[in-house]
Amino acid sequence: MLLAIDVGNTNTVFSIFENDVMIDHWRIRTEASRTMDEYASFLLQVSKLANVELDSVNKVIISSVVPETHFALSRFCEKYLQINPVFVTKDMVNIVIDLKRPEDVGADRLVNAIGVLSEYSSPAIVIDFGTATTFDVINSDESYGGGVIAPGINLSLNALHSAASKLPKVSIEPTEKVIGKTTVEAMKSGLFWGYSSMVEGLLKRLCDEIDGQPLIIATGGLANIFAQNIELINVVDEQLTLKGLQVLSEKL
Predict the structure, then answer these.
(1) Helix, strand, coil in percent for the chain, rounding step 5
(2) Catalytic annotation on 108?
(3) From 108, 128, 136, 237, the catalytic residue
């Protein structure tokens, strides 16, 4: 069995694959100070509840954008699973990276590209709604073409709340009308429809620069709610990064 770990800035997701099929996955908040024993305590508990035998894991692959977590995750795998984990690097990804500085691209963005090429067609654009919202272009020749990094909507919400003390925190959801009749309605409208318009505008500009008609795939925790209101999005695949990790693990 494979244990695939996706370490994002906000959450870390652990997923178990058996014979290329995802059996289950679990999420925990990413904390740089978390110890190997804390990882073990969490994973042993949730896997037991799901009737998953961690003793059957024989490979671990990790995509991480938080280097501070690497030591504890490595020690967790070595001590509790008796496995040396493999961290994704650009050298593992067998695609052309068409960037000025290929070494700067995040592991998660390359893994998403691998997930797209294994599951879908190219050209494609992946929108990953995370701490940052990233737009990644996979060209028709299956090369990674770069993209856009924008502040995530939760960052925007927190910045608005912090900078304007009288404005409350609100939930992220579509409003029936754009014109808000209360402060909360106005904030919800500005956040959701303003962010949706930003996504739509960037997608249109990206499509203008890509040869061919790209398939547009949304992933990340808020993918579904935005996809329901943005017609340009063709597919929602919340497990795209984990699927990409599984594909990369076949080379281990």
Answers:
(1) 40, 25, 35
(2) yes
(3) 108
| Domain 90-245, second-level architecture | 2-Layer Sandwich (3.30)
- Reading phi first (left if > 0) and then psi (alpha if -120 to 50, else beta), residue 134 is in beta
Domain ranges for the chain, please list them.
Answer: 2-87, 90-245
The fold for domain 2-87 equals: Nucleotidyltransferase; domain 5 (3.30.420)
**Is residue 136 a contact partner of residue 150, using CB atoms and an 8 Å limit?**
no
Q: What Å distances lie between residue 202 and 163, 197, 208, CA to CA?
A: 26, 8, 10
- Digit-by-digit pLDDT tens for the chain (252 residues) are 999 999 999 999 999 999 899 999 999 999 999 999 999 999 999 999 999 999 999 999 999 999 999 999 999 999 999 999 999 998 888 899 999 999 889 889 999 999 999 999 999 999 999 889 999 999 999 999 999 999 999 888 888 877 887 788 888 999 999 999 998 999 999 999 999 999 999 999 999 999 999 999 999 989 999 999 999 999 999 999 999 999 999 987
Peptide bond into 123 cis (omega under 30): yes
* 247: DSSP letter: H
Q: What is the reported pTM?
A: 0.91
Q: What are phi and psi of 91, to 5 degrees?
A: -70, -20
